[in-house]
Amino acid sequence: MEIKALGIDLGKNWFQLHGVDKRGKAVFQKKVNREKLPLLIANLPRCMIGMEACAGAHFWARKFQEMGHEVKLIAPQFVKPYVKGNKHDQADAAAICEAMSRPHMRFVPIKSLAQQEILAIHRVRTRLVQAKTSLVNEIRGLLLEQGITISQGIIKFEQSLTDLLDPEIEELSPHFKEFLGELVKEFKFIKEKIERFEEHLQQLGKENTAVKRLMTIPGIGPIGASALVASIGDIRQFKNGREVSAWLGLVPKQHSTGGKPRLLGISKRGDMYLRTLLIHGARSVISWAMRRRNPVSSLEKWCLGLIERRGLNRATVALANKIGRMIWALLAKEEDYKMYAIA
Q1: How far apart are CA 267 and CA 265, in angstroms?
Q2: Which of 95, 246, 275, 310 is the most buried if burial means most Cβ atoms within 10 Å?
Q3: Across the chain, what does the average pLDDT equal?
Q4: Could you tell me the pLDDT band of residue 188, with boundaries at 50, 70 and 90?
């Protein structure tokens, strides 16, 4: 039995396999559990293995590569058109096998263990930030029911809570103060955990050359730089900076027909977390440029001119797009960002 390509539909405990020969004819179909899968793959002759880029895919991809197989990961939305008939594990495995054989199919780069560890820190930090924001809003709402309003901003929020919990201030009842004190302890606990994760990411910026290089770009700090380096991996998978921007979903979506080009808003494809970090970074750069009034670099001059012509929000997204192209240039050419001052 000669297997040219093998499609695997991943699961938590059970995996459906579908193998074809060089003519594309199905020659192997089997369902195995997690314990038997590594042994079965190790005993197969060297072949091309395809899987959807989902939970656990990068782990299995690294494991199969160590066994000598060529592994391809495909985005699930690119596999769906090849599913024939009703959806089930066997049809999904066959669709993966069919999709990976297409000559123009785009594949997902396999992430290393170090990349996944960095992204795990970012995911946990994001959840903690959301929990902190939710808790702050909850405390604000509870105090509003007591007729107390707190100004916006986390610094003013913490100062207001300190004043309200002062024993000499009788604006709140002792029972409510005790209840509020428990919420404040929870807030401080979450804040300390976020700071520990951010310290780890800042340390990574001091040790990793690529992260350090991206931090020279205006609007990118240790959090954004580490997330970008861990997500992008090998920059050579992109031909130019525009491909990076398109991968981040920062280029216009196109709906053209009959030779009439029609560009819509940004496509919002790719990783929403990375796109959010870049747009927030671009917003901070524009904020500083507007405060200075007199631009000190060609980038700030470009931003201020674009704001006058197209408005603040469009200029912010356009700057995020430009930063995405800078990322490719710096990583591909292995250079630091050079700021061109206005003479």
Answers
A1: 6
A2: 95
A3: 89
A4: very high
Answer whether residue 324 shows pLDDT above 80.
yes
Same domain, 18 and 68: yes
Contact assessment for residue 256 and residue 262, using Cβ atoms and an 8 Å cutoff? yes
Same domain, 245 and 318: yes
Whether residue 177 is contained in a domain is answered as yes
C-beta atoms surrounding 192 within 10 Å: 9
Domain containing residue 73: CATH number: 3.30.420.40
The per-residue pLDDT for range 86-132, each reduced to its tens digit, is 889 999 999 999 999 888 888 988 999 988 999 999 999 999 999 99
Asked if pLDDT for residue 312 goes beyond 60, the answer is: yes
Residue located via tokens 């009842």: 173
237 and 304 in a common domain: yes
CA atoms within 13 A on the CB side of 239: 3
pLDDT tens, position by position, 198-221: 998 888 878 888 999 999 999 999
Number of independent structural domains in the chain: 3
CB atoms within 10 A of CB 196: 11
Asked if residue 152 and residue 126 are part of one domain, the reply reads yes
For residue 318, give its domain range: 217-333
Split at pLDDT 50, 70, 90, the class of 343 is low
* 75 and 24 part of one domain: yes
Helices (H), the chain: 37-43, 57-66, 76-79, 89-100, 113-145, 154-164, 174-207, 209-214, 222-232, 241-248, 272-292, 298-310, 312-333
- Report, as an integer, the average pLDDT of 321-331: 92
CA–centroid distance for 250 within its chain: 13
Residue 105 in any domain: the answer is no
Q: What is the mean pLDDT of residues 33-57?
A: 91
Are 164 and 172 contacting, i.e. CB atoms less than 8 angstroms apart?
yes
In this structure, are 191 and 119 located in the same domain?
yes
Nearest Cα to Cα of residue 51 among 25, 81, 71: 71
- Is residue 195 domain-resident? yes
Q: Does 141 map to a domain?
A: yes
Same domain, 326 and 224: yes
